[in-house]
Design goal:
There is one protein chain. Helices cover 25% and strands 28% of the residues. The protein is built from 12 helices and 28 strands. It folds into 3 domains: 185 residues, 3-Layer(bba) Sandwich (FAD/NAD(P)-binding domain); 125 residues, FAD/NAD(P)-binding domain (3-Layer(bba) Sandwich), CATH 3.50.50; 112 residues, Enolase-like, domain 1 (2-Layer Sandwich), CATH 3.30.390.30.
């Protein structure tokens, strides 16, 4: 009997599962795969939207594969289609057309949706989010028309800062408003975040530690009320984070976790009425994960996280026994030419979980000091004060961040201590590295100091 697999959602998570399933297909054993998505395109890379707004490439280049690509491979690839309900006991999903689509195995990859602050004025003209292709097209049209002069970005995370750079490069006077006292609070400590703030172009100004009270205007946004200040704005981007899209899961009676995401077990199976279901999986932005350091529930809304989860789901759909362990969420972003990386916990998050932290911070060159293309690099490493095991890392430079973050991700997973990082053999070539890397310096400083005050 042919296995019927239905995937709800065609973002990175759903497409990854589809791609892996297609790779495993054989002539003798083929599943009947249906993928359902509300959007009208095939595989669209929303991660690239800020760079399209910066003029690096055209928006249509973010369409990686059209629906016809998957249909030619035998997939029932349904675009512009809304799922209105999941009936778990009956094993079918209901579509807005009234069709009831049966499944043997179901994959929920419904993603997330932008958080809209509960303040007046968010429905005014000139107010945007940046998540979908349509969002990008609307913003690009405004920038191309050169009708906007003042932009306000609500949110100082990665997407907000990348968009702020795009606005500034398009000649807009740009202000970033972040309610936390520093930028990128989810991935950086305040001392490291200050480096990012100082790097950004003079056209970007900041209001940190302040809350947006309202968006003001008659039909079209004209200003943003921040505490008692009114900041002129004819373009406002809300980049205040993402919330798991769990309406379908909730209505189907699936269990949700403390962070609002779908609750899953180590095999990424969902829970309903106290039991984990053998034939219903969830992954990506809509689920909760277990933090590998703190062992607490959290969200990890990254394409790189979804990719690994897709490998687990695909293996289990095909009869395997793959598991998804603790999540470290290694993150890297390019913001105005500055590379920012983070993995593990921040100092604030560690302390909120009752952990005592030892930190070491170092500034060094990426290459030998006599090499003309060397760049400065800042590294901050966080260690558990009692064991000196690495629990977090934050790095900033114009080059070389991604590979160091990947190295430190493996180090955290291996339980590496500060001393082990110091004594680890490393490669050296003056045009590529220093003989003693900034990671070693940061580890040495932490090893020699007492608990961070």
């Amino acid at each position: 009997m042919t296995q019927r697999i239905v995937i709800i959602g065609g973002g990175a998570a759903g497409i990854d599962v589809l791609e892996f399933l297609l790779r495993e297909q054989t002539e003798r054993k083929k599943a009947e795969i249906t993928l359902i998505k509300r959007e009208h395109e095939g595989f669209f890379s929303s991660c690239g939207l800020p760079f399209a707004l910066q003029g690096r490439y055209e928006l249509n280049e973010l369409v990686l594969f059209k629906p016809e690509f998957y249909r030619a491979k035998g997939v029932d690839f349904r675009t512009g289609t809304e799922v209105t309900g999941i009936t778990v006991p009956g094993k079918y999903v209901r579509l807005a057309t009234g069709e009831e689509l049966p499944y043997d195995d179901l994959v929920i990859a419904t993603g997330g949706r932008p958080v809209i602050p509960p303040i007046p004025g968010t429905t005014l003209e000139g107010v945007f989010t940046l998540w979908s292709r349509e969002d990008g097209e609307r913003l690009k049209a405004v920038l191309d028309a050169e009708c906007a002069k003042n932009a306000v970005v609500i949110g100082g995370g990665m997407i907000g800062l990348q968009a702020a750079v795009a606005f500034a490069r398009n000649g807009l006077k740009t202000t970033v408003v972040e309610q936390c006292p520093s930028l990128l609070p989810a991935i950086l400590d305040a001392d490291v975040a200050s480096v990012v703030q100082n790097w950004l172009p003079n056209e970007v100004t900041f209001r940190l530690g302040r809350a947006v009270r309202a968006l003001e205007g008659a039909g079209h946004v004209a200003s943003v009320r921040v505490n008692e200040e009114a900041i002129a704005a004819d373009l406002v981007l809300i980049a205040a984070g993402m919330r798991p899209a769990v309406d379908l899961a909730r209505t189907a009676g699936l269990a949700l976790g403390a962070c609002g995401g779908i609750k899953v077990n180590h095999a990424l199976r969902v829970k309903r009425v106290g039991s984990y279901l053998n034939n219903v999986y969830a992954l990506g932005d809509c689920i909760e994960v277990i933090d590998a350091v703190t062992k607490r529930s959290r969200l990890s809304q990254l394409a790189s996280t979804a990719l690994i989860q897709a490998r687990v789901v695909t293996s289990n759909l095909l009869g395997g026994t793959a598991t998804y362990g603790g999540c470290l969420s290694p993150t890297v972003a390019s913001i105005g030419g500055l590379q920012v990386g983070s993995v593990g916990v921040t100092t604030a998050y560690a302390r909120s979980c009752g952990m005592n932290v030892k930190a070491g911070i170092a500034i060094k060159y990426t290459k030998a000091r006599f090499f003309p293309t060397r760049k400065l690099i800042v590294a901050k490493l966080l260690f558990d004060a009692s064991t000196e095991r690495l629990i977090g890392a934050q790095l900033i430079s114009e080059e070389g961040i991604a590979e160091r973050i990947n190295e430190l991700t493996l180090a955290i997973k291996a339980g590496a201590t500060a001393l082990e990082l110091i004594m680890r053999e490393r490669c050296f070539e003056p045009s590529l590295t220093m003989v003693e890397d900034v990671i070693v310096d940061a580890a040495m400083k932490a090893h020699k100091r007492a608990t961070t005050p």
